[in-house]
User: Which sequence fits this backbone?
């Protein structure tokens, strides 16, 4: 997971949350409960974004690039410019370490707050029932209410067994204030706001590097308070009386609850002034939307999901970068959640099987490798490969190595017949056995036509070993490009060395094309790419 992966994740999540914020602003005429559900739906979609990136299609997006004097140019038959002498290196995945450290740091306040809230609730004393009015007492039947000298504002704590903790001063409160406070906290319990707040905190911790996450979480907290205020007003408490009681509690409060997600304090420093204004604004929607809320929230979540799909179908790439879709697919494979089989039979030009040939398949995005050797009948099989792009290398002393790159779908099977020769010239074409049948017409396209449709081009890197050995020359690749413009199979036809073959495959597999149309419909194409590696004198 290089910087490209994290940058792409940042862009995708930012687009999703910006869409959620836009929908929240458009829903100002709706109830606070509606907006709260909308924001939480966006956080759930954010949590599911990695899965969406795997299952949704990937389509090339044109990104302008500046001219590089050291970069190769694509021609019909060859590339004429020298390549960079830098060599690819695998370094320590420090971005993952930073990400995990951020998760730990953002979860610490949640854990500390949960411990503090539990301690306060356990040390608090029960509130005497005679202090409560009859209508409030009946509503509070299953609820545990306690008094504590530690807190100065009312709190709701506990997800499984909720409790309302009041300051000890509540014993001297008027019946109006006590009724308003308890109705507000009861609304939090009925709405399960503490669960939504905790879940939002956990999701936000996973996406801590996205600033929009913190904004959505803040709005989620505000909307939950506004929704509970609306329920208090619907119970018959006058808006002016309720606002007066809130201000009175705020004046006597000693401090705010320091742990934002482990409890629900009635008085939060988050937009308290706006909350009072909302209470006094009689034009705001306060109607109950129990049935309509589910439908409206589903539609809102669907709108956000469609926005995520639209964004996800564009690949924001950078030279040498690996797409989020490819990397996450590889991770699912490594976790054993998807698997495929790569098999084949190897023989020489006469048709005789080639035994004891080394077969290597590896995922360049994750570095995962699997090896085997051909049997006496020339057959081999590798199980456990999953969705992603793979490079297949077959070696046999005295024969020219074979290189293939292909895009594997999860739970698919690919089987081929390969022919190895001792000639460095063009290699014989593979014969598909299974798993390679074309999904439609495959059109042969010339190099110049394919170049015109090229949108994203990753520059090859000159291998250090080849540079040190003075190896240079031309790598000829036959590329099969899908209807979506993604190379799904690359076949090295000729090459001066294995290092240059791998370098060329590693770069060309990341290219993206505009779809080629035949009678107005996208089709798979087959074209030839020739890369010329030239050492500077």
Assistant:
């Amino acid at each position: 997971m290089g910087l490209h992966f994290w940058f792409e994740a940042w862009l995708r999540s930012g687009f999703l949350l910006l869409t959620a914020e836009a929908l929240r602003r458009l829903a100002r005429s709706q109830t606070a409960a509606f907006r709260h559900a909308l924001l939480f739906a966006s956080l759930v979609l954010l949590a599911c974004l990695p899965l969406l990136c795997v299952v949704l299609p990937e389509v090339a997006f044109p990104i302008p690039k500046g001219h590089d004097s050291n970069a190769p140019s694509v021609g019909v038959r060859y590339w004429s410019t020298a390549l960079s002498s830098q060599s690819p290196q695998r370094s320590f995945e420090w971005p993952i370490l930073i990400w995990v450290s951020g998760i730990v740091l953002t979860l610490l306040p949640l854990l500390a707050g949960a411990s503090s809230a539990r301690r306060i609730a356990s040390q608090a004393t029960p509130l005497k029932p005679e202090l409560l009015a009859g209508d409030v007492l009946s509503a509070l039947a299953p609820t545990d209410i306690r008094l504590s000298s530690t807190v100065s504002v009312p709190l709701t704590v506990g997800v499984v067994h909720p409790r309302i903790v009041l300051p000890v001063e509540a014993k001297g409160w008027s019946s109006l204030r006590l009724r308003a406070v308890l109705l507000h906290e009861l609304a939090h319990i009925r709405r399960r706001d503490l669960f939504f707040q905790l879940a939002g905190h956990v999701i936000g911790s996973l996406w801590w590097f996205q600033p929009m996450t913190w904004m959505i979480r803040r709005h989620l907290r505000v909307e939950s308070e506004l929704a509970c205020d609306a329920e208090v007003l619907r119970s018959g408490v006058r808006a002016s009386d309720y606002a007066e009681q809130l201000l009175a509690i705020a004046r006597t409060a000693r401090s705010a609850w320091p742990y934002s997600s482990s409890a629900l304090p009635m008085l939060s420093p988050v937009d308290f002034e706006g909350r009072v204004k909302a209470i006094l604004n009689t034009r705001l929607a306060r109607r109950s939307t129990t049935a309509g809320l589910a439908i409206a929230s589903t539609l809102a979540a669907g709108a956000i999901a469609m926005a995520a799909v639209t964004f996800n179908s564009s690949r924001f790439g950078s030279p040498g970068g690996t797409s989020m879709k490819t990397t996450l697919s590889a991770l699912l494979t490594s976790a054993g959640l998807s698997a495929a089989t790569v098999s084949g039979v190897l023989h020489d030009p006469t048709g005789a099987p080639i035994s004891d040939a080394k077969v290597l398949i590896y995922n360049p995005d994750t570095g995962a490798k699997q090896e085997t050797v051909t049997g006496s009948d020339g057959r081999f099989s590798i199980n456990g490969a999953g969705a992603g792009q793979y490079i297949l290398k077959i070696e046999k002393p005295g024969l020219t190595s074979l290189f293939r790159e292909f895009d594997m779908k999860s739970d698919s099977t690919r089987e081929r017949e390969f022919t190895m020769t001792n000639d460095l010239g063009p290699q014989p074409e593979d014969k598909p056995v299974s798993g390679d049948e074309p999904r439609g017409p495959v059109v042969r396209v010339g190099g110049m036509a394919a170049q015109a449709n090229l949108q994203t081009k990753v520059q090859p890197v000159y291998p250090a070993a080849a540079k040190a050995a003075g190896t240079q020359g031309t790598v000829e690749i036959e590329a099969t490009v899908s209807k979506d413009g993604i190379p799904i199979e690359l076949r090295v036809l000729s090459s001066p060395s294995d290092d240059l073959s791998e370098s060329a495959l590693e770069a060309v597999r990341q290219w993206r094309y505009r779809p080629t149309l035949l009678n107005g419909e996208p089709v798979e194409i087959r074209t030839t790419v020739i890369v010329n590696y030239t050492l500077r004198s």
Remarks:
- Residues 58-91, 309-321 have pLDDT under 50 and may be disordered.
- Residues 3-60+92-309 form one domain.
- The chain has two domains: 3-60+92-309, 338-533.
- The radius of gyration is 31 Å.
